[in-house]
Design goal:
Rossmann fold, seven-stranded mixed sheet, 10 helices
Length: about 240
């Protein structure tokens, strides 16, 4: 009898991966995720109406949906494959989360969306699956709509810590390949940004900044010495992709 690894790993994804890796309790992890989403993703929605229809695919514990609700977005909902994650979202008071396959839902939906988000999700698809996913999302977005993704950045130093830190990851992108695949799948404009690297502890954040400047300069010098350009190269562990119709 063959076993699908996704059936095994996604059924208890929080306890075996996202919650385990956080080294903290569920509530603290939820609040820390909200803090980061408020910096990384919320500013990207400044021009979006508060009544916009927003679908958060692979929404996990619903921390992004909680941020959207706090910001006044009244028509956002999400879906996740893991019943454990859905139960956690409901426990955190995010009731607009339902159990299900987000890709199947989008494919079968007659609805058009203003925004579709996916944080730490597109790396879980094979290349063929990702192309199908992006083409489907592009077809389900309204004119002027946008897809926003966060995914590991393969150009980051020690990228394997994040790229290979989850057994369910299937593909890896950098800024260039992210733009390539989104444009090929029909999006008209694709922008890539480095993710936030800020640490909540103010003293650790000061130390991080002091270390980051010379370290990142050294990486740029290595790239320059190899005869390549540092344009469109980011060193943050994750990157943010904004693809517009």
């Amino acid at each position: 009898m063959s076993t699908n690894y996704r059936d095994v790993l996604y059924s208890n994804y929080h306890s075996t991966q996202s919650g385990r890796a956080s080294l903290t309790d569920s509530k603290s992890l939820f609040e820390r995720e909200k803090w980061r989403f408020q910096m990384e993703l919320l500013p990207l929605l400044n021009s979006v109406s508060k009544s916009a229809r927003i679908f958060d695919m692979g929404c996990g514990s619903g921390s992004l949906l909680s941020v959207l609700g706090d910001a006044g977005f009244e028509n956002a909902f999400g879906m996740d494959l893991s019943q454990e994650q859905v139960d956690l979202a409901h426990k955190m008071g995010v009731n607009q989360v339902q159990m299900g396959n987000a890709l199947d839902f989008i494919k079968n939906s007659n609805e058009q969306f203003d925004v579709i988000t996916g944080t730490d999700i597109i790396e879980h698809f094979t290349k063929d699956e990702l192309v199908e996913l992006l083409q489907t999302i592009q077809s389900k977005l309204k004119s002027g709509g946008k897809a926003i993704f966060r995914t590991p950045n393969l150009d980051a130093p020690f990228a394997s810590i994040f790229a290979n830190g989850d057994f369910t990851h299937e593909n890896y992108l950098n800024a260039s390949s992210a733009q390539q695949v989104h444009l090929a799948c029909g999006f008209k404009k694709v922008m890539v940004y480095p993710s936030q690297m800020k640490i909540q502890n103010p003293f650790k954040e000061i130390l991080r900044k002091l270390i980051a400047a010379p370290v990142f300069l050294s990486y740029k010098l290595v790239i320059f010495a190899s005869g390549r350009s540092t344009q469109n190269v980011y060193f943050s562990p994750n990157m943010i992709i904004v693809a517009e119709n």
